[in-house]
Amino acid sequence: MLKRNLHTVDRFIRVLVGSVCIYYGFIDTSYIAQNTVTILIGLVGIINLFAAVSAFCPLYGLTGISSYNPESTKAHEA
Questions:
Q1: What pTM was computed for the model?
Q2: Which residues fall within 8 angstroms of residue 21, CB to CB, at 6 or more apart?
Q3: Residue 66: which residues within 8 A CB-CB, separation 6 or more?
Q4: Rounded mean pLDDT of the chain?
Q5: What percent of the chain has pLDDT above 90?
Q6: How far is CA 59 from the centre of its chain?
Q7: pLDDT higher than threshold 70 for residue 30
Q8: DSSP-assigned letters across all residues of 5-61
């Protein structure tokens, strides 16, 4: 199971960045001349959307970074 390591704000930013990357990487490729670069930008977008949906960033997991603090979300719920 993937352990959550992304805060809600981090997830929102990743949705925005991922959507823009997918748009310029796969949909409107006229701004970038090289096909390899457009594919890489699209893949970065897919990875960001996966991280946002699953609340888990693989790079954060490898480095031990976490923007998620379960205590702060419990304080807001009370």
A1: 0.81
A2: 41, 42, 44, 45, 48
A3: 5, 6, 60
A4: 90
A5: 65
A6: 10
A7: yes
A8: ---HHHHHHHHHHHHHHHIIIII-GGG---HHHHHHHHHHHHHHHHHHHHT--HHHH
